[in-house]
Structure formats: structure tokens, C-alpha cells
Amino acid sequence: MKIIVTGGAGFIGSHLSSRLIKEGHQVLIIDELHPYYSVERKKRQLEMIKHAGEFSFYQKSLIHHEGEVRDLFHLFKPDTVIHLAAIPGVPNSILVPNEYVDYDIKATINALRFAGEAGAKQFIFASSSSVYGDQQNIPLKEDMANGTVVSPYAAAKYGAEAFCHAYSTIYDYKVSILRFFTVYGPWGRPDMAITKFIKQLMADQEIVVFGSKTARDYTYIDDCVSGIISAFQQKDQYAIFNIGSGSPILIEELIKQLRGFFPGMRVKHTDFRQGDVQSTWADISKAKGELGFHPSMSFTDGLSRTIEWAKAHAKEI
Ligand SMILES: NC(=O)c1ccc[n+]([C@@H]2O[C@H](COP(=O)([O-])OP(=O)(O)OC[C@H]3O[C@@H](n4cnc5c(N)ncnc54)[C@H](O)[C@@H]3O)[C@@H](O)[C@H]2O)c1
To answer: Which residues form the NAD-dependent epimerase/dehydratase domain (predicted)?
Structure first.
């Protein structure tokens, strides 16, 4: 298939693109290399994709280079568009909320329009568990998102989902909304807890934990990529799927497992952060039943692989 991956130089996008290339797809990546985190890191991630095989890359922005990006879509004529481009990060969205309207909503509208005009048959959107708001300690089913979000990031993703639905009625493509749950693993995003903690622990620094009794449904990157690829099996014109592990991990458990690797670790507990939710827990029965999605990495093995990677790339993380 011909596939456009927006945000393909990012954490999830670089792993996904490598896998798609290895599976024989023709991949075109559009990524502006946004400086939300190190641009060098994104260039490194692009280099990594080259090991998988050939692909095209355009350093263009979905919002600042509209005309050129539209031309790329028209010329390439993708079968599928996988739209990952966004600025992530809950705390940053409280600092610069309007950026999230631009990068997470307006960019999505452009991708939806360009995909439709270019005749794509499927549009896959990277949404987030944050759209469920703060519904604590219960498995979250796809129909439980009701708009009661608690951060500008989540509000932008929830709004972008609505645009995806609107465009599924305007254009003749299938739309898949995938709600990712805290993705981690090698080359994990540097602003996210697991990557940040490991980096600090390797430098013998204290780690800071926000709030207590929090829990996250951590998804290993390879399982997330498998989840995205499983969406090719979607039958309905429009559908929403949780892509998670289905097993939440308490912060105490994460700390305990990290202590196994870094016995001298020092932990400072501080207040719960505004915009965060207490817990996330994905009910993945819909993706299992309809897409054949089966996450296979245990948290213990995933964490161990992530630490192994971090130690081997200490200078780059
Ligand atoms: N990592 C997670 O745990 C997680 C969880 C839920 C949802 N998501 C969503 O998955 C997607 C990928 O996340 P990630 O962790 O790989 O983030 P990332 O920041 O590593 O990747 C996003 C990429 O998009 C690019 N980009 C941003 N705006 C752009 C624009 N307007 N035009 C072109 N390129 C642009 C960035 O340069 C970056 O390389 C995002 O939409 C994110 O919100 C991620």
C-alpha cells in the first residue's frame, strides 16, 4: 500500500514507519521536526528508519506549508493516511493552549481534507486516552468519552476526533480513531515519565513523582505499532478503538520495578499535577474482537528492554 505517515520522525511514527517499510509498504513521511523536544533526536529517529529500507521524507508543516503538503498528497495518492503529527504533552498544553488548537486540531483538519481530496481509502488518527477525562480505576470503553476532559491537550484531541467524524461523512474514506494509552519503549519521548526517570536514574539523580496512587495503562511501542497496523482490518466506515495493554500499573509498582535496576534510587513525592488524570485503564476488547489486536509485551519485559536501550544510548537520550 501507499501510506503517508504524518509525524513520522517522532517516537511512534519512526517505529511505525520502520515496520511498514519492512512489511513492503511504500511510505512517505511528512514531519516538520517541531522543537517540542530535541530536533537532533528526531533526525536520529529518521536515520533509524533508513535501516528498514527506502522511504520519502519531507520536512514540511501541515499548518505552515499547506499548499506544498496538499501537493504532496495529490502527487503521492496514498491509499492510507496515518496522522500522528501533533504536539503532545499535557503540562505544556496548559502553558500554550492555543498551540494545541493549531497543531492538534487545525493540522488534523488539513490532513483530513488533503487525504480526502487525494482519494485515500482510510484515515487513521492518533487520539489519546486523555479524552476520557478523570474517570478513575475503571476499564475505559470507547463509548465512555463524554467531553469531561481536564487538559487543553485532551480538549484538542477530543475536538479533533469530532472533525474526523465530520470528514468521514464528507469523503469516501474509512476513518479509524485510535486512542493510545501511555506508549513507552526504546526511543520513548523524553518528556514522558518512564524515559525521564531512566535518564535521571542513570545520572544518579533523584526522580520526582507527582501525586500518589496514580496508575497508567502502559503500552509497549511494538504493541502500539501492531495496534495501528491492525486498524487496516477495520470493517466499519468509522470506528474508535483503544490501543493499550489492558493492565494498569500503579506508580508504586513502577518505582519498585525501577528499584530492581537502580537499587540506590531516590524518590521525591510531590503534589498531583494540574491537567493529569489519576488513572488510565484501557478496555481493549473491541480492538481484540474486531481488529485481532493482541498486545504481547509484559510490563516487566518492556521496562527491562527500555532500560537496556537507554544504557546502550546513554549519550543520545
Ligand atoms: N506517546 C504516547 O504515549 C501517546 C499517547 C497518546 C497519544 N499520542 C499521540 O500519538 C501521536 C504521536 O505521538 P509521539 O509520542 O510519537 O509524539 P512525537 O512528538 O514524538 O511525534 C509527533 C511528530 O509530529 C511532528 N509534527 C508536529 N506537528 C506537526 C505539523 N503541524 N506538521 C508536520 N509534523 C508535525 C513532530 O515534529 C513530531 O516528530 C501524537 O498525535 C500524540 O498526541 C501519543
So the answer is: 3-244
